[in-house]
Amino acid sequence: MINIKSLRVDYDDLNAVCDVNLDIGPGQIFGLVGPNGAGKTSMIKAIAGIIEPTYGEIKIAGFDMELESENALGKLGYMPDFSPVYENLKVWEYLDVFAAAYLIDRSVRPEKVEHWIKRVNLQDKTNTVIRELSRGMRQRLVLAKTLLHDPDVLLLDEPASGLDPIARKDLHDILKSVAEEKKTILISSHILTELSDFCNAIGIMEKGKMVLSGSLDDIRKHINSTGQLVIRLAVANQETIQKLTTFLQIIPFLTNIKHNNSIELQASFSGDPNDASALLAKLVREGFSISTYFVKEANVEEIFFHVGAKQVS
Amino acid sequence: MKMISLQDNALFLQNWRERMRLPSLASAVILLIIIIVLIYMNAYLNPTYVYSYDYNQMNCQPETRYNHGSNCVPTQHQEILPWIKKFFLDLCSLQGIIILLIATGSAYRMAARERVSGTLDFHRSSPTPPGNQTLGLLLGATSLEWCIFAGIAFIELFLVLTTSINFSTFLNFNFALILCALLYHSLAALLGIIHQPHKSKLTSIPMIFGIYIIIMLLSYPALSTLYHLSWQPAYEQLYSDVQGKLFTHRSYYSYDNQERVKLLYNFLGFNLPSLFLQIMVQVPFLGVVFVAILRKISKPEHPIVSKPILLLTIFYILFLFCGSVFPIITAGEGKGWYSWGEEMVFYCLIALIMCLGIIGAWIITPSRLQYIKGLRRCKKLGLKKIDSGDDQASSTVWLFGFSIVTIIIFSFFVYLYKISFTAYLISIVFMLSSPIFFACFLEYFHLSRHHNKIIIFWTILIILWILIPTLGTILNSVTHSDILQQYFSAFTPWGGISPIVDLITKTPTVHLYEKIRIILSINILLAVIAGIFAKKVRAELQKETLENS
Fold this sequence. Notes:
The structure holds 2 protein chains of 2 kinds. Chain A is of the alpha/beta class.
């Protein structure tokens, strides 16, 4: 759905995006992560046709952005971090304007507008002038604008920035439901936990370069990421936790065993699910009273710090 | 460009909805009704006299002298203008104020807001073609004023159908006004879209006043080109038609002004209808401005016009100048101030060519980033160099094109005045040297890496063009040496115009050839130095970019 070849974006002497190649398939939710100034926004703006890249080929749903821009842009929905709105328009008017911009037929525009107003929970505000909406409501409105022409590809640049936790949750819920419709979503954020929830692939950008990209599983394998085994005892007991630590030290797929208190213990886990299961059975047989036992996989944040640290070093 | 109906044009819909809200519409309608009633009362209660003049009976007594034109004024006759005609004329004036002044301000304001707020980015990333976006912006931003315009036109039409006023008068006037309005709105919208509030401290109010001042200046023209860019011909024709007498408008009662106005309807020796001239002058400019807005919407980092379009525009401006000046030249001596002398023609021509060259270079010289982008793209595509017509190309080939345009236009005047070949060559070299110097100098600074390059550029230019000539003037007041002063004034583009015109018109002047030598030496030297610097920076950038890519 999104195919990028050798994309480069420059601003005067600054190279914002440097020869990026990227393929994001249908139904993929691709999280673009990186520190501020890594080139995420520049890349998204170049894909959305807002800034002219120095060179590179961008294809959206098979349409070349340079040669068939009208078709390519028709398949695209773009939402920036701080979304500009027309303060003096009513909610329905705003959506109707952009329905027209996306060449939606006049006869179906009211129906589409109504559907998306409901979908983003703004039905009470249909006739409200936008200047009276809160920031969260405005973001939801812009999200509706982004989705109302049913684009195959969504470009979301820090969509939750500046939102309070409730508005952020609302936005996430809507995005999750959109993701279920098998749309291709490219979402950037520097709040990494935000992406862990629903991304199935990520790309890490540093200084304009795509340091690493791919599905989360592939990346975990690629960086040899180990999981974290977490064991919690039913009752806090210093002696038992010491005994458990000693017991686990001889297990070959566990390293870095540490306990911060007398009830919970963590260790780096490099085994497979069968190993985890066998270990649990062994622990029960040994008489340890365990209330919680799970293997936590590396999330986006941990992967980012892992890769980022390597890049910096 | 695939045309989209206005009901489906997003930018039109957005502007229309904002501007046609019930409170603003109601307020506009109430105000309009009150104003029309006042106009009606004024027309009905205050009789207006129309003056006509008999040029066969000239009254030349000293006490009847007027400030403008001839000392003799024709015998004056007066008659009362029927109130219904006065009402009609005043409605036409109201139409002009609304559509030319108020709507122009709206076009600027809405376009600037679209850019500053960032909403334009949403439209840019939509599949609506940029031509439709431009059209929607232009018509939507001024929709309220167009509705008022149509309302007044409806009343005018009623008057036309019920009185002796001709339908063709009504039609001609409205068409002329609409054309004029579209040009002014487009110019205002272009200014709004290129206005960068974070870079320039100009707020929208001074910008709107600036637009109005430019429009006002256009109403006092000396050339038919400028005259037909203004609204003046539309009203001139309207007053002539409604009052039944040609050129009886109050400001043109003296004989000289009568002749001057007649010349304004002459182009290249042909007397042409007002509307035809207006279309000939305004439509190409409207096209260029429309394309400029379209480019700024679709490619904001690029110059407002492409290099080939800019060359064509310059050629057309110079062609219009030729057509405007021709009747003035051929009118002959002894017909008052409007009959330009040979010197005046060449002063204006040389100054105009140099100005166009300098402004043109300012528009098309690529920024460092654009030039680097062009080089990188070439490398990626395996091309040897950037296409010379490309926005990212150096201005060198454009300067060559500009030189050809200059030579063609100047040759027309050489043919008219039969000037010598040497004077022709010297003039061409002089006229081209300043734009070449400016273009190369600007390119050097644009492409170089200096942090404060624009400040350095303007500082050097102010020293060369203002401070050095001022020093020359100060020294001249002590030494009284023309030659010494020429050394200093030759650094400016205008410092050499006077001796060059003297050379062309064979005016006997002291030290003329020495002055010409100084002017040419300094101008050529400046152009060559700037050219070398520009070439050097281009080569450096090329090497650096291709190595680092």
